[in-house]
Amino acid sequence: xxTHSKKRKVEPKNITEEFTDFxxxxxxxxxxxxxxxxxxxxxxxxxxxxxxxxxxxTIIVTDQDDDIRxxxxxxxxxSTFYDLSxxxxxxxxxxxxxxxxxxxxxxxxxxxxxxxxxxTQWLFIDEDASWEDVxxxxxxxWDFIGMVKNPRYEWENRTEDTREGKNCIETSxxxxxxxxxxxxxxxxxxxxFNELSRWAFGYTxxxxxxxxxxxxxxxxxxxxxTLKRSKAHKRSKAHKRSKTLKRRRSVHIKTHKRK
Length: 259
Hints:
By secondary structure, the protein is of the alpha+beta class. The protein contains seven helices and twelve strands.
């Protein structure tokens, strides 16, 4: 009799401590300082940062069940692409706490350490509904983080040259101007994963991968020690060669004198 195994549910992982440790080991800049301020706020209020690798989502768990989250949702039809969503409840105590930096940075960290996304991957939003009035001026959160207009948003703009850098599949669908379905077709705005990381950390995902290391702090310490040992080893070898050459020269001089 055939048996069917149930798909195991992936539980969110508490990354509060490891992410804090990671941030404390990065060279400081204005973005890192904003994240540190947000982490202090989290610690003071005993909140928790949970990361779910099954849908690339970070949630900040509060004592009031506030909905504070950021995610990269994966779609596979008609071609694979990711779209972004963020939610921070509009409460006075949550304003100006740099939570957007913390949410996006911790999600990028979680993906780099536990997930699988190319650093050049395009990310999209369906429609920009984030516009709000700020001192009499209309501003968008998605523009603020560096998203730009998707050239394949409008149907008539989906030409061959707008396929550059996109994952596309050929189609016989007559509604497709260039006979291709591409990731993010019809989505409003786009940003690469590398640039999302730069906005949150001040470092691209590629730069962070030079530091991240599926081993965290111990790996970083080990790499520094290895580097020191390597230099010491080279100095030791050079010193030994120098001593050997001196001995050979001494033997040669003594032999020459005897003759």
